[in-house]
Amino acid sequence: MTWSIVAKDHATGQLGIAVSTCAFAVGARVPFIETGTGAIASQAFVNPFYGLRGMALLRAGATAQQALDILKAQDEGRGQRQAHLQDKAGRIAAYTGADCVPWCGHLVRETFSVAGNMLAGPEVIAETARIFEARGELPFAKRLIAALQAGEAAGGDKRGKQSAALLIHDDEDYALFDLRVDDHADPLAELARLERVAHERYLHYRKVMPRRDDPAGVTDRAEIERLIAESIAAEARG
Question: How far apart are CA 7 and CA 15, in angstroms?
């Protein structure tokens, strides 16, 4: 009942997951990312422990495939699960259980994977992958959303649409983007709108927030406003 893309942007090093489904609040269940550890999307008859325990395995040094193998071995419901993940070295693993509702399947490329179940057909993930590869000129967040929009145009979730989410991490321990559309008639369009709104102020403000190399961040309000204005102007100049 879901399809998603897990990807790394080699231009920035960012890890991201974008997901859409005909179910409520997909962003609360499917995407998991930890900076310096990896990214996991757990879906189908969703088992959140694939994300929670999987991240612990990756953190302890397991490869993507090793972590996935352990998760499946410990799960009696594995036939109804789907998961794909990427570890900190960029290795990718993917799994679609034999009992997932068709159409279901996954594909793996060098820097990303796409997986889905209860879809209109294989063209959904094929188009998602094609557009992600073709639109490399786009900023990472927009590229992930564009990929899912292409999958939706190819049929998407065969039951319809309700929610979508975008999760991206950069070098900081907290998310760069954590956008969730929990219940909407056109969730991917709303997700794209939220990404645009993020550029109005949030992404510029985030540059002055506490960081690994500056645990306090900028705290002078006048300086914050000056730096935000500079950042907005720089983005407008391209």
Answer: 6
CA distance 133 to 142: 13
Cα dist. 164→62, 108, 223, 225, 235 in Å?
A: 29, 21, 36, 32, 26
The span from the CA of 18 to the CA of 20, in Å, is: 7
Task: Provide the β-strand partners of residue 177.
Answer: 168
- Reduced to 3 states, what is the DSSP secondary structure of residue 161? coil
C-alpha span between 42 and 54 (Å, rounded): 10
Write the pLDDT tens digit of every residue in 7-57.
999 999 999 999 999 999 999 999 999 999 999 999 999 999 999 999 999
Tokens of 199: 């550029």
Q: Which residues pair with 112 in a beta bridge?
A: 7
Residue with tokens 């419901």: 77
Architecture of the domain delimited by 2-185? 4-Layer Sandwich (3.60)
Residue 4 tokens, joined: 């998603």
Q: CB burial class (10 A; 0-12, 13-18, 19+) of residue 160?
A: exposed
Q: What predicted TM-score, i.e. pTM, was given to this entire model?
A: 0.96
* CB neighbour list of residue 173: distance below 8 Å, 6 or more residues apart: 35, 212
Contact 72, 53 (CB under 8 A): no
Q: Would you call 118 helix, strand, or coil by DSSP?
A: coil
